[in-house]
Each structure stands twice: as C-alpha cells, then as structure tokens.
C-alpha cells in the first residue's frame, strides 16, 4: 500500500528505529524538555506517559520532527531528523510518519472513505485505486460498514478508527498518536486500542502513543514516563522491548 | 503494612528507645489506632534476633524503655532492599507503599524513585491482565476488569502521593 519511497533504509524488526539523545527544548522561560534520552525499536509499541505539563506532547512533536530541539538530536534510522531543514522534515513526515490526535480531526464535509483516501490522492494516486486502498484500511479498522457516512454520523469510536485508517493508509513506518482515546468512554477506548495495536502489529508499524491513561498504556509493550521534562528515574535504564 | 520493617526504618534515623519509636510510629502511621507497646518490643526483638538491630545501652531501672537500640549495617541493607523492591500489586498495598514512602522521606532517601518503580510494577501487571482479556469469555473479562480497577486505584494513589511529596516530607520531618 505504500505510495512513496521511504527516506531510510529500514532497520531490522527489533533494532533501534527511533532514538532521542540529550533533548532540550525551551519555550521562553519554560523548560519543556531538560535532557531526554531513550531508544524505540522497530515494531515496538511505546506509551509516553506523564502528568499534565510534564512535556510528553512536546516530546512527541520533537520525535516526529514537528518541533526541533534546542540541544540534542532525534535519529530515525540513520537520519538525524533534528538536523534536517523544514522542507525535508515535512517530506519525512509525509512519507514515513502517521499521526492520530485526540479528536479525529476528520474533514467534516467528506465521507469516511473520502477522508481516508485524501493522503493517497494528494500523493498522486488515481481516485479509483485510492478508494480501493481506503476501503481495505476501513475494513482492517472494522469500520467498512460506515464508509459512506459523514464524520457527524459516526460515533466517537468509529470516527477515531477512520482517523487511524487515514493515518495508516500511506503505510507509515511510525504512527504517532496523541491521547488517541482521550475523548472516548472506557469500553470504546478499549476497543479502539485493541484495534490500533492489532493493526500496527500486523503491519509492523512502530507505535508511539502519548497518554496519561494507564489502561491505554497497558496495550503497549512498555512505557516511558516523563516528569518535569526528563525521563523519570524508574525508567532511565529500561531497554526497548525486542520482539 | 510491615510494621517490623517500618520500625527498622524509624530506627535508621537515629539510635532510639522503644518509647521514641512508638511515638514516631504513632505520629506517622497510626493516628487512629496507636501501636501497642507489646508490638513495638516484639518487632525490636525480631530485629535484634535477625541482626538488623543491636541493643547499645541499657540504663539502670526497670522496664524495656530503658533499652536503646541501633540499626546495624545488615539492617541498613535490609531496609534499602525493602524500600526499593516494588510490592506485587495486591489489595491493601497502599499502606505498605505509604510506609515505605514515609520512611524514605524520614531518611532523606529517594521517595520519587521508590514510587516510580512501584508504578512500573503496576503497569507491568496491567499489561499482563490486558493480554489475558484477549479472546476471554465475559466472566473472565469481568474478573480482569475488577483487577484492573484496583490497580488503577493504586496508581492514582501513587500519583497523588508523588504530587504531595513536599508537604509529606515536611510532616515526616516535623
């Protein structure tokens, strides 16, 4: 299902895919990140946890190349993401990364299937092929029956599954999710997490989730806890889960 | 809550008489239900038997309050191992985590680290249970959910304790 060539030579499953070394980032007088180090293995599912204001969402944005750190570096394979210019980082995000947010952020005037096919159409794929691939992803996310519905006609859980399908339709190597179940009730949240972890595992997609919720984190292989802009002391020596 | 090791923790602060230990214990851990003298002395007797504490002075007069105890190196090792080994997530765990947190504050040790490793232990347990829920029948699902709610309650307690460490330290040292 890949629509573009990836920018890296892919590390073997279980080898380090994404790493943070000595990350510092300040916004004015606020030190959001104060020296963050860790590694995430290819195919791993990791939860970044921490209290409000701990710097976990900022860390996600730095890992994904949306923000650049003041000090330190983010490596994706052999690429130093934090050393790339804005245009190269945008290309990398398009080709290799997918994003899911707390509120699906679907385009309200488009049906579920059109929302999912958008990234493929933007990449130049024919409409017929794009719709075929979008339907296959909706099927994997167990929402194919709702393909023609508008976002307002979907439940919260269904909308989030459509958003996940849209994030995965370009076959990203890494899926970043910021509080993906934050707006859902607990049973729906569990179902979304089960689907999300199944689908990313089946497609060998590395999953990085920011969450404050322990139940959501329990679907991942391990957690990295951030406190006051640092990896919390109980986690500094934890290694990636090599599967 | 392990009252013998909690007592050892209080002894880790400075050599003490049984009476001092009872006062400190009651102030930090047993406001509603003071510990009996008998329990204090049976704890001290276990600690001395296991070489975690020694009797350093015995003043003239009657009664156990004349005896002064001191923690040994072996006792300090046992204390650290207790403090920094997370407890298995089981019902009633809070009191032990609370006791360990207070003792680490009294001794100026790393309470945040203690709570973080406990939290990590809980999250690992949650992962096990979440995996068990896969393809389980409804009865098993409900049992797993019940266990998960208890672990979540512990985690909230740990988070809340962590956010109150500064005030707690002030009380522990007052």
Automatic annotation (TrEMBL), chain A:
**Stored SMART domains:** AAA
A GO term for molecular function: ATP binding
Q: Which Pfam families match?
A: ABC_tran
Q: Tell me the leader sequence span.
A: none
Where the record annotates domain ABC transporter, the positions are 18-243
Print the keywords alphabetically: ATP-binding, Nucleotide-binding, Transport
Against InterPro entries, the record matches this protein to: AAA+_ATPase, ABC_transporter-like_ATP-bd, ABC_transporter-like_CS, ABC_transpr_LolD-like, MacB-like_ATP-bd, P-loop_NTPase
Superkingdom field: Bacteria
Q: What is this protein called?
A: ABC transporter ATP-binding protein
Mind giving the lineage of the organism this protein is from? Bacteria, Bacillati, Actinomycetota, Actinomycetes, Micrococcales
Automatic annotation (TrEMBL), chain B:
What start and end residues bound the annotated signal peptide?
none
One of its Pfam families is PadR
Using the record's annotation, list all stretches that form the Transcription regulator PadR N-terminal domain.
Answer: 7-80
Q: Which residue ranges run through the membrane?
A: none
Read off the InterPro entries from this record.
Answer: Tscrpt_reg_PadR_N, WH-like_DNA-bd_sf, WH_DNA-bd_sf
Output this protein's name: PadR family transcriptional regulator
Q: Which organism is it from?
A: Agreia bicolorata
